[in-house]
Amino acid sequence: MTLRRAATILLLLMPGLGLILALIGAVVYIAVAQSFGLYSLMGESAFSLAFWSDTMGKKAFDKAVRYSIYVGVLSAIFSVILAYPLAIWLRKPFAGSVTIGAVLKAPLLVHGLVAAFLYINIISYNGLLNQVMQGLGIWDGPKRLQNDRNAIGVLILQTWKNMPFALLLLTGAVQAISDDVLDAARDLGAGSWARFRKVIAPLTVSGLQAAMVIIFIGALADFSFQTIAGPTNRQSLAQLMVNFKGRGDWHSAAVVGVSMMAIALIGSALLAVAARMIMRGRLK
Amino acid sequence: MIKHLLTTAAAVVAVTAPLQAQDLSAMSWDQIVEQAKAEGELTWYVWYLQDDLRRAVQAFEDEYGIEVTIPEGGDAGGNANKLLAERERETGDIDVFAWGYNDFETVDLDALFMPLTHLPEDDGRVSELTGIDGGDHVLAYWGNQTGVAYDPAHVSADDLPQTPEEFAAFWAENPGKFGFNYEKGGSGPSYYLNMLRVLSDGVDFFDGESNDEKLAGLQPGIDFFNAHADNYVVTASNADSILRVSDGELWMVPAWEDHLAGLQNRGEVRSDIAFYIPEMGMNGGGNGVAIPLNAPNPAAASVFIHWLTSPETQTMFNRTFGTAPMNAASDDSFALVPNAQREFRTPWAAQPFRGEVEQRFVDDVILER
């Protein structure tokens, strides 16, 4: 490649690269620098490893890391598990399939905060669910379902919100598989499960990876669902970061923020690799 | 066209620069009011009840003809970030900055705010609140008090818990009916900090110094909460606590007096929910206002603060919002608690010790549940 050609390519890439480097890069740089004591907003700036050692030594940080990974991984898995059969069902158009698809994607248009408050209203002590269950005689009295200890509420909200996104990606991937390929598999004696495992899964693994990675990153960094519907005995990383910031401890908040970015990056790579290995049948 | 624009810009600079450069302390109050009217507007960054406060400041707008803009949204942290981010700008966007009184303790007042010594003298105003001295730079305008909200349908006013032991007895007799938040609002933290203060005999919560020995002294209080962990509920926020009492799920929760009064005035929670300050003490506090050094309309801001902290406005705030008046000459007869209970008001634990206690409580009580 000549220098002139390299320069041309670089220039053509500049609008995209510029945006990434100037905007995202600057934010990442500031966060990393602040985690090492630089760019202090309310004190003296000086390089220090103390914020990393202090923050990583806290029990709250350790629990927040494990809790956020738990929510991120399970949200991604539940979303794609629900989306796959729907994507396959909607692969071939049928009467009403467009309407069904639109209804399934409706959660994309509802803001997460609205969904969280609606959910709380439904499961609250005297909410709809409690009233229905008591009305049906299934429960003797109201049950406390809000802010459950295992974050089932958060997982329901994350799955509800992210499943349509996974469906969007997987529908495109599944529809790209030609009928000939599936017919050939059927002719060779493959049943529904075998066709999914040996044909559909390997051919849609890229869509699956994209869906899992994006959902994982979003759920890992969740703040709104967690603070409204999440367990009160656990903190997510985003919640912990906001707590530090609220106390004016920007450097510790930056440590949590940078950790969140690193976990998102490493976790995404691991999830993508695991998804590829599982879907291509290398892990039984 | 360019010439026209340049001429206009030059005129704007010529008119506004002297105003900003003018030292208010060298002017009489009448001159300041005159300049305030010439400025004609101000922006008040306040982090809560923006709609209600817009209605409240109409009286000021009518009296002085100065338009008050309260920006939409924005929480305390966001407004503080903006204040800090634009501190180096020659002229900022904020004329009057409202903040939790104890939050002012976290910044250098001299470096961010102008002195308010040019305001007319008024001995009734409050610049020192719950141990925080706003000095010449900050004045309190919103007094609030934490206490315990309860459902009179289930809890008798004659039998209200007053001490940690009595609260534990209530928890044991009524498991799952007492709740408090540890974040998203200060009422829960006020409750558990004061419980810890009473239970941790000999630990000085009002001295901000923090060390391992002092933190170790909290252990009896930490053990107390853990021993009774099954009997109380941790709620998600101040608002969540109050809503769950109003809904009948919980019978007692820590709350802010003004928050509860505001929700009751707007019909958002039951009006029969009652409130008291336990004898063990709970924290009182409030919000203060200050004028950033780079305020675009400093005279208008000064006149506004003078109005905001006046006895008349403070009486109106007490009537409308249920706040504790921040002017000694005000009428506080609309408060949710009788004046006699105000003696149980305690200052917040001093920083940085308070932050360490809160972190310890989260680590050793909340995350251990």
Short description:
The complex is a heterodimer of chains A (284) and B (369). Chain A contains 13 helices and no strands. With 284 residues, chain A is mainly alpha-helical.
Work out the strand percent of chain A.
Answer: under 5%
Q: What's the CATH class of the largest domain in chain B, please?
A: Alpha Beta
Count up the domains of chain A. 1
Given the C-alpha coordinates, what overall shape of chain A results? flat
How many β-strand runs of chain B? 12
Which class of chain A in CATH terms? Answer: Mainly Alpha
Largest interface: A-B, 27 and 26 residues
Can you count the helices of chain B? 15
Helix content of chain B: 40-55%
First and last CA, distance of chain A: 45 Å
Task: Tell how many strands the DSSP assignment of chain A holds.
Answer: 0
Q: State the helical fraction of chain A.
A: over 70%
Structural class of chain A: mainly alpha
Shape of chain B: globular
CATH topology of the largest domain in chain B: D-Maltodextrin-Binding Protein, domain 2
Order of SSEs of chain B, N→C? HHEHHEHEHEEEHEHHHEHEHEEHHEH
Q: Give the terminus-to-terminus CA distance of chain B.
A: 70 Å
The residue-averaged pLDDT of chain A reads 92
CATH architecture of chain A: Orthogonal Bundle
Sequence stretches where pLDDT stays below 50 over 5 or more residues of chain B = 9-21
What does this structure look like?
The complex is a heterodimer of chains A (284) and B (369). Chain A has 284 residues and is mostly helical. Chain A has a single domain, classed as MetI-like (MetI-like fold). In chain A, 73% of the residues lie in helices and 0% in strands. Chain A is flat and about 70 Å long. The two termini of chain A are 45 Å apart. In chain B, β4 (128-129) and β5 form a beta hairpin. Chain B has helices spanning 2-21, 29-39, 50-56, 58-64, 76-85, 109-112, 164-173, 187-199, 212-216, 219-227, 238-246, 257-265, 298-308, 311-321, 353-366; strands at 41-45, 67-69, 96-100, 128-129, 132-133, 139-150, 178-181, 232-235, 252-256, 274-276, 282-290, 345-346. Chain B is globular. Helix content of chain B is 41%, strand content 15%. Chain B has 15 helices and twelve strands. Chain B is an alpha/beta fold. Chain B has two domains: 2-144 and 286-321, 3-Layer(aba) Sandwich (D-Maltodextrin-Binding Protein, domain 2); 145-284 and 340-366, Periplasmic binding protein-like II (D-Maltodextrin-Binding Protein, domain 2, 3-Layer(aba) Sandwich).
